[in-house]
């Protein structure tokens, strides 16, 4: 019998578990650890609350989660509740599927001013991540600036644009629903260092910006490249750029009856956030494209800003005892191999890119590598204690482990507490989750 510990119960973790089951059948026991008492990583705490069909992907992991040779070990933070070398003593292989939960910083002045947030924090706030539920962004000002031109920036812009019935059917948490419905924001500016051809926005998400009840998009026609150049783009990006062209052609009257405008500001990079204690403005430098790269022109302007959300990417959180690649912001690895018996997968392996589905081939590839390493003897004999060893450790150290059955109790309680039309009202603190189990 071989024992695998997977650290992180997001898509990468569950795909790796599914692959292990397929590869080794009954010859394997998999423990999936998570620091939260609830599974599924960013599917729960990242994917936008109004994208329920995407969140529904987690149902597909239940078959794996409920099988006898896979179990969920929630409410255990690896690196805090148990050290990495202790865990490696217990399991033949440890796979880090811890994602990239920390915001990348812009590294400019004023980033620590009040009401300047990274997207991990801001998205975590409206999605009820226990770490960020208490964020309390001040939405009483008129202008929000969002740094970034990817789908996360669009999610944040859309959430800031929606009101009341537009949240029907979503699982946005109560505290965020109240704050967003009362928000005074009427101008949302998305800043991109480069131009319309360099966005990382997919057509579905961009198209939604043209369908909002209270907000309309604005693109300056001057920022658009010659239309013939669109033919050189790959089909997905071409569709997105076509949407930007559609937004640029909107007549002023299309915006007249919408109280919120979402502006796409291209060739603009923030150089400082300005304010006394709270952010009041963003200093922006105009850029130009040189060989596909943004180059500063020295031309600056100040944009008033009452709220800033930076959506420029994420970093993996280091774990003591695991080699880390500081410049890439992820574990140092060779196609998922870190050290003998220690692996990584998903965002912890390759950084924050791709969709949920991108993590599936990762999960299968890492299990193939583990099979190879068993074959070559790199993982030693099959004499590790696995589950039994961890259970003894947990009992000795008083860990309050949450199982998948426990999670189903939490889920039931969340569903029972849902407001009308919503699938659930999430618990936003760990104590409340544990109380629901007991
Ligand atoms: C805001 C946002 C919106 C997104 N929207 C979409 C979308 O609409 N469609 C789409 O296809 N993709 C979307 N994605 C991308 C998708 O969420 C990722 O591809 C995917 O979640 C990455 O999976 P992962 O398993 O590597 O990491 P994660 O999903 O982040 O899972 C990591 C897990 O590890 C746990 N963990 C971390 N550290 C520890 C530790 N030390 N000990 C124990 N557990 C730990 C975390 O609690 C978490 O559960 C979105 C991403 C973001 C950020």
Q: Summary?
A:
With 438 residues, this protein is of the alpha/beta class.
What does this structure look like?
This protein folds into two domains: 2-101 and 316-437, Rossmann fold; 104-310, 3-Layer(bba) Sandwich (FAD/NAD(P)-binding domain). The model has no long low-confidence stretch (mean pLDDT 96). It has 16 helices and 19 strands. The radius of gyration is 23 Å and the shape is globular. The chain has a six-stranded mixed beta sheet, with helices on both faces. Helix 1 crosses helix 13 (359-375) and helix 15 (404-416) packs across helix 16. With 438 residues, it is of the alpha/beta class. Helix content is 32%, strand content 21%. Residues 7-13, 33-36, 41-42, 46-47, 51, 54, 77-79, 97-99, 101, 123, 152, 155, 317, 319, 346-348, 354-356, 359 line the site of flavin-adenine dinucleotide.
């Amino acid at each position: 019998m071989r024992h695998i510990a997977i650290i992180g119960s997001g898509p990468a973790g569950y795909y790796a578990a599914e692959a292990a089951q397929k590869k080794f059948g009954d010859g394997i026991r998999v423990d999936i650890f998570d620091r939260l008492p609830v599974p599924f990583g960013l599917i729960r705490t990242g994917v936008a609350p109004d994208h329920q069909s995407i969140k529904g992907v987690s149902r597909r992991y239940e078959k794996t989660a409920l099988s006898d040779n896979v179990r969920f070990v929630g409410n255990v933070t690896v690196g805090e509740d148990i050290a990495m070398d202790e865990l490696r003593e217990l399991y033949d292989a440890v796979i880090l599927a811890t994602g990239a939960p920390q915001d990348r910083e812009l590294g400019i002045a004023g980033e620590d001013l009040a009401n300047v947030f990274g997207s991990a924090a801001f998205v975590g706030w409206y999605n009820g991540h226990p770490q960020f539920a208490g964020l309390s962004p001040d939405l009483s000002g008129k202008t929000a600036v969002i740094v970034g031109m990817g789908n996360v920036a669009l999610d944040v812009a859309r959430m800031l644009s929606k009101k009341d019935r537009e949240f029907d059917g979503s699982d946005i948490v109560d505290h965020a629903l109240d704050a967003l419905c009362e928000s005074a924001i009427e101008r949302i500016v998305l800043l991109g260092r480069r131009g319309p051809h360099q966005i990382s926005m997919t057509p579905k998400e961009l198209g939604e910006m043209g369908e909002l009840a209270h907000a309309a998009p604005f693109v300056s026609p001057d920022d658009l490249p010659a239309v013939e150049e669109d033919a050189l783009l790959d089909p997905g990006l071409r569709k997105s750029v076509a949407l930007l062209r559609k937004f640029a052609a909107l007549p002023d009257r299309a915006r007249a009856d919408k109280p919120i405008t979402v502006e796409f500001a291209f060739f603009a990079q923030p150089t400082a956030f300005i304010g006394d204690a709270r952010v009041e403005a963003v200093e922006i430098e105009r850029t130009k494209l040189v060989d596909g790269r943004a180059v500063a022109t020295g031309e600056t302007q100040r944009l008033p800003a009452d709220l800033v959300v930076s959506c420029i990417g994420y970093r993996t959180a280091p774990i003591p005892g695991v080699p880390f690649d500081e410049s890439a912001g992820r574990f140092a690895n060779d196609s998922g191999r870190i050290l003998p018996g220690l692996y990584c997968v998903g965002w912890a392996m390759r950084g924050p890119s791709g969709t949920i589905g991108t993590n599936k081939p990762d999960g299968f590839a890492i299990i193939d590598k583990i099979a190879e390493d068993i074959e070559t003897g790199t993982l030693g004999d099959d004499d590790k204690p696995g589950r039994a060893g961890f259970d003894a450790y947990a009992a000795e150290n008083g860990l309050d482990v949450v199982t998948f059955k426990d999670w189903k109790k939490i889920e039931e309680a969340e569903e029972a507490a849902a407001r009308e039309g919503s699938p659930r009202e999430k618990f936003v603190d760990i104590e409340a989750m544990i109380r629901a189990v007991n």
